[in-house]
């Protein structure tokens, strides 16, 4: 891989991770504030539950494409001693391609739910945030993850 391309890829890769980090930081501050408000003033944040759901979704689905493209998922290597390097690379390539292809079905389901939420005008309970925004964000993230997994699989497959 050429150096300029690798540098651009590294910058592109940092953006979703910064978004995930920001969402996690906001979640941490909100949780701290909610605990203090609940304990000291007996007045919890009304929207804490819906903000927690939204921020967790942003954290998870922002990081998913990056983790998938790097191959950083948690894996158990119980059978790795039975594979030589070439066979293990081939196995990993096929698994990445298969997982990328299988993400088509959850992507279709999330898109259906996002369209339905938009058509029905579904909003969150306290803040009235349209729910389809998060659903489309999840769909976009799953689509990027699918492409990243398939590309990773083919790179592993044809790697020398």
Number of strands: 0
- Mean pLDDT reading: 92
Shape: elongated
- SSE-based structural type: mainly alpha
Poorly predicted runs of 5 or more residues: none
Gap between N and C termini, in Å?
Answer: 13 Å
**Element order, helices and strands?**
HHHHH
Question: What labels describe this entry?
Answer:
single chain; mainly alpha; 0% strand
What does this 3D model show about the protein?
- The chain is mostly helical and 160 residues long.
- 78% of the residues lie in helices and 0% in strands.
- The protein is built from five helices and no strands.
- It has helices at residues 3-40, 48-70, 85-102, 104-120, 131-158.
- α1 (3-40) packs antiparallel against α2 (48-70) and α4 runs antiparallel to α5 (131-158).
- The protein is elongated.
- The mean pLDDT is 92.
At a glance:
With 160 residues, the chain is an all-alpha fold. The protein has helices at residues 3-40, 48-70, 85-102, 104-120, 131-158.
Itemize the secondary structure elements and their pairings.
Layout: H1 3-40, H2 48-70, H3 85-102, H4 104-120, H5 131-158
Helix pairs in contact: 1-2, 2-5, 3-5, 4-5
């Amino acid at each position: 891989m050429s150096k300029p391309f690798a540098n651009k890829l590294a910058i592109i890769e940092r953006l979703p991770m910064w978004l995930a980090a920001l969402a996690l930081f906001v979640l941490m501050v909100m949780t701290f504030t909610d605990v203090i408000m609940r304990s000291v003033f007996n007045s919890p944040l009304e929207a804490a539950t819906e903000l927690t759901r939204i921020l967790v979704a942003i954290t998870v689905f922002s990081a998913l494409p990056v983790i998938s493209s790097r191959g950083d998922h948690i894996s158990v290597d119980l059978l790795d001693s039975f594979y030589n390097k070439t066979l293990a690379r081939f196995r990993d390539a096929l698994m990445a391609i298969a997982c990328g292809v299988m993400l088509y079905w959850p992507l279709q389901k999330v898109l259906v739910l996002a369209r339905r939420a938009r058509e029905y005008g579904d909003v969150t309970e306290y803040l009235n945030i349209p729910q389809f925004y998060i659903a489309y964000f999840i769909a976009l993230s799953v689509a990027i993850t699918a492409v990243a997994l398939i590309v990773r699989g083919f790179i592993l497959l044809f790697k020398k």
